Amino acid sequence: MLTNKEAKEAILSGRVCIDGSVIAENIEIENWCEISLDKVVVRQKKTRIYLKFYKPKGMESTLNNTIDGNLAPFFAGYEGLSIAGRLDKNSEGLLLLSNDGKWIETIINPKAIKEKEYLVLLDKSIDDEFCRKFSNGVDIGFYVTQPCYCEKKGDKLVRVILTEGKNKQIRRMCKALGYTVVNLKRIRIHNYLIENMQEGELVEFTPM
After folding, report:
1. What is the pTM of this model?
2. 188: exposed, middle or buried (C-beta count within 10 Å: 0-12, 13-18, 19+)?
3. Rg of the chain's alpha carbons, rounded to an integer?
4. Which residues are catalytic?
5. pLDDT tens, 114-146?
6. Distances in whole angstroms, Cα of residue 10 to Cα of each of 2, 17, 106
7. pLDDT digits (tens, 9 = 90+) for 63-86
8. Which residues fall within 8 angstroms of residue 94, CB to CB, at 6 or more apart?
């Protein structure tokens, strides 16, 4: 391991290559780049991975294998993954994962304003007034939610599109309006759809 001074000297003397190209000054290095010193590879090139995953109901949105019900067994063979957009334990549907931290940030950063779409089954019949109140924003005790989209799709089923993601937000909104969520399924994050995926299935994709 080189000291900062030694690393700077190695760079200035043209002994360091990033992905096969000599660098002559300090630059930001992505975590998947190959690094060579004196033509010897000191860090192997990594492949950027992007995954869609259908999280089953009853499992935690974490890769921490010390937590009961974690998702780590589904991702054996993958390293350095982070989750973009978690779901609570009792919800199911689309998760996005990647080892590309910058891409993850473009999905989860609130300033990015990425849509998330859900199908929500409730415990009793709904009417247009429910959708109106839900869409206008709901006081969930510690926060008044931002305006969103809510469309009736069946007697007890609604389609919801949010651009924010407070903890258990949809469940809290429904409870404030006198309803209980029976099932919650996320079917889209930004432009990425769950489509015909099955519970526990993961699919590699190329970011749009």
Report:
1. 0.83
2. middle
3. 22
4. 88
5. 999 999 999 999 999 999 999 999 999 999 999
6. 9, 10, 34
7. 999 999 999 999 998 989 999 989
8. 52, 53, 54, 55, 85, 186, 187, 188, 189, 192, 193, 194, 197
